[in-house]
Design brief:
This protein folds into 2 domains: 182 residues, Alanine racemase (TIM Barrel, Alpha-Beta Barrel); 122 residues, Beta Barrel (Lyase, Ornithine Decarboxylase, Chain A, domain 1). The protein has 11 helices and 19 strands. A hairpin with a 2-residue loop joins strand 15 and strand 16. It is elongated and about 75 Å long. The chain binds pyridoxal-5'-phosphate (PLP). The site of pyridoxal-5'-phosphate has 12 residues, from helix 9. The site of pyridoxal-5'-phosphate (PLP) has 12 residues, from helix 9. InterPro entries: Ala_racemase, Ala_racemase/Decarboxylase_C, Ala_racemase_C, Ala_racemase_N, Ala_racemase_pyridoxalP-BS, PLP-binding_barrel. It comes from Planktomarina temperata RCA23. Keywords: Isomerase, Pyridoxal phosphate.
Length: 347
């Protein structure tokens, strides 16, 4: 065994969805966001896991990403596309029965011309300035759109992971101003928005990261476990260095393990000299620079020679590891490499 072992607990994903689902009222639909291949964990498998729990609405970023969901679940579910109706997407939107979330007047025109009568939703910009129609654009097409019976009208919160941020209320007010009284099905909240409370839930919520065990959903069950095999162990004397650039040197005699994973596997180089691997409850610091395929780890504190060391485990969550690398859990998950031996369990 020469690569890391990535274990993905599908039961954790189901439990996280169910808990997030219970946070909103009975008449609020809880969807699942499976963009970026299910946050790196295999969107088809995630979808197949969530269907029996009751998920019937899935969101992807790009039309191409929907094919894995359709392959698994056939026509039993609705798949929405955040990027809307892009040039070149018409056949895919038609053949896979996708619901594009139209972001602009141009996309609306393209959709109505290319696929008249085909379902669509609308994405509104309420201040994030990323995707969606702005208030003036919406006002110009609103009556036309309402007459065409869109499947969903949605927007996205920029600061939902900070509950006290004034932007949340501001965007909520803007969303209401743009959509109140139109009789349309509405969605505003992702994981962070669900936690902000029922005012933010409208008719459908769209959790992503919370399903996969990441912040801001603090009570998420962990989903991934990553264990790395030790290739070699050596003893170094005081003053010896480890790895490229001699960025770490031993202040006392030390025992160094070289494990088989590196930045090519998504273990960011920013973790150099800056995080730990774990052997049961014992932290073993990363020493020296993270290489492409290897990481040096100080295992001096361990009573025996380890065969593996864990980097994502009960002692170090995706968010804790992300913190060490100066990033967020989303980036750790979606960077998980293709070389790991992936094992899916359901416990
Ligand atoms: C990614 C995304 C989501 C899911 O967000 P999480 O923070 O992962 O729950 C929901 N809506 C939109 C528009 C997104 O881009």
């Amino acid at each position: 065994m020469s690569t890391g072992n990535l274990t993905i607990n599908l039961k954790g994903i189901t439990n996280n969805w169910s808990t997030l689902d219970r946070m909103s009222a009975e008449n609020v639909e809880t969807a699942a966001v499976v963009k970026a291949d299910g946050y790196g964990l295999d969107s088809g498998r995630v979808a197949r896991t969530l269907y029996p729990a009751g998920v019937r609405h899935f969101f992807v970023a790009a039309a191409e990403e929907a094919s894995a969901i359709r392959r698994e679940l056939g026509d039993n579910v609705t798949i929405y596309v955040f990027s809307g109706h892009m040039r070149g997407d018409t056949d895919m939107i038609h053949d896979l029965h996708l619901v594009p979330l139209l972001n602009s007047f141009d996309q609306l025109t393209r959709h109505l011309e290319a696929l008249p009568g085909h379902a669509f939703g609308v994405q509104l910009d309420t201040g994030m300035n990323r995707l969606g129609m702005e208030a003036s654009e919406w006002e110009a097409v609103r009556d036309l759109v309402v007459g065409l019976n869109p499947s969903l009208v949605m927007s996205h919160l920029a600061c939902a992971d900070e509950p006290d941020h004034p932007m949340n209320r501001q965007q909520l007010a803007q969303f209401c101003a743009m959509t109140d009284g139109l009789g349309l099905k509405r969605s505003l909240a992702a994981t962070g928005g669900i936690l902000l409370g029922p005012e933010y839930h409208f008719d459908m919520t769209r959790p992503g990261i919370g399903l996969y065990g990441g912040a801001p959903y603090a009570h998420a069950e962990s989903v991934v476990h990553l264990s790395l095999p030790v290739i070699q162990i050596r003893d170094v004397a005081e003053g010896e260095t480890v790895g490229y650039g001699n960025s770490w040197s031993a202040s006392a005699p030390a025992r160094i393990a070289t494990v088989a994973a590196g930045y090519a596997d998504g273990l960011l180089r920013a973790l150099s000299n800056n995080a730990s691997l774990w052997h049961e409850g014992q932290a073993c610091p990363i020493v020296g620079r993270v290489s492409m395929d290897m990481i040096g780890v100080d295992v001096t504190a361990l009573p025996q020679l380890p065969e593996t060391l864990d980097i994502l485990c009960p002692y170090q969550s995706v968010d804790e590891l992300a913190d060490k690398a100066g990033t967020i859990g989303y980036e750790i998950l979606t960077s998980l490499g293709a070389r790991y031996a992936r094992r899916y369990v359901n416990q």
